[in-house]
Design a protein that fits this description.
Length: 266
């Protein structure tokens, strides 16, 4: 972001500080209150999220927006001394909205990929996950991806887990998603399913005991983070600092345990 004239920067900083104070924002954050991060709405961190992606971003029984990513975004905003406003946006339109400056950041399990890194800034990851092979808990025949050879797995044909299963030699029963895959597995109609570790942990946390277990996991992990446009360097740096403090004080681990029963933030 271009450097502002000193007088203008001071005025904007004072205005944002006043807005935060009037709206009851936290004053405990370690970052400067009301700092000028080039926000869409001064003093408010506007966050894009789907609102339909459980357990990351969804509406609870009362209709309130909540979820793993939502709580982490709120904690970051609090550390920065900013109010937070969530703008629910369909995934297919979420990056276009970011490009159009309709919000400041995306918090929606955005995977860090080389293609995205070429166009956007990413925070340090707040989610780290691996691919896992899920089987019934009494199955001793599968303990590695190599053991999937000749077995039948339930997979969505459009997912990267389908490729991982077939590359491992599995025969695939096509399904629409995790719910259908896990139903077939529990019924004994397939031998396994390959999916994301976070999906499995959420299912276990919500439905335990499930009669399922993880038989193997990938060596490589995928990481998800907040995404910013390239003109938001100051904001990205501030969010990184806030995430570091939230990791050090145990907040990230606590939120993770709440949703997954495990710390998936590192």
């Amino acid at each position: 972001m271009p450097r502002r004239l000193p007088v203008l920067a001071a005025a904007l900083g004072a205005l944002a500080l006043a807005l935060t104070a009037c709206s009851g924002g936290s004053t405990s954050g370690s970052s400067a209150q009301g700092a000028d991060y080039g926000l869409v709405d001064g003093g408010t961190l506007t966050v894009a999220t789907e609102g339909t992606y459980r357990p990351f971003s969804f509406h609870d029984a009362s209709g309130e927006l909540t979820g793993f990513d939502v709580e982490i975004a709120k904690a970051v905003a609090d550390k920065l001394g900013l109010q937070v406003r969530f703008q629910e946006t369909q995934w297919d339109a979420i990056f276009a909205g970011l490009d159009a400056q309709r919000f400041d950041v995306i918090a929606n399990q955005v995977s860090i990929t080389p293609e995205r890194q070429a166009k956007y800034f990413f925070s340090t990851p707040y989610t780290v996950s691996r691919g896992v092979v899920v089987v019934k808990d009494d199955d001793t025949s599968i303990s590695s991806f190599a053991d999937l050879a000749g077995k039948t797995t339930a997979q969505s044909l459009t997912s990267n887990w389908y490729k991982l299963a077939t590359d491992s030699g599995a025969k695939v029963e096509a399904v629409e998603g995790w719910a259908q895959a896990v139903a077939l597995l529990r019924q004994g109609r397939v031998d396994a399913t390959v999916n994301d570790q976070l999906t499995y942990l959420d299912y276990e946390k919500t439905n335990s005991p499930t009669g399922l277990k993880v038989a193997a996991q990938t060596e490589d992990s995928s990481s998800s983070a907040f995404a910013f446009t390239k003109d938001k360097q100051a904001l990205a740096d501030a969010v990184d600092k806030a995430l570091g403090e939230l990791r050090d004080d145990g907040t990230l681990a606590s939120i993770s345990e709440k949703y997954f029963g495990s710390d998936v933030t590192k």
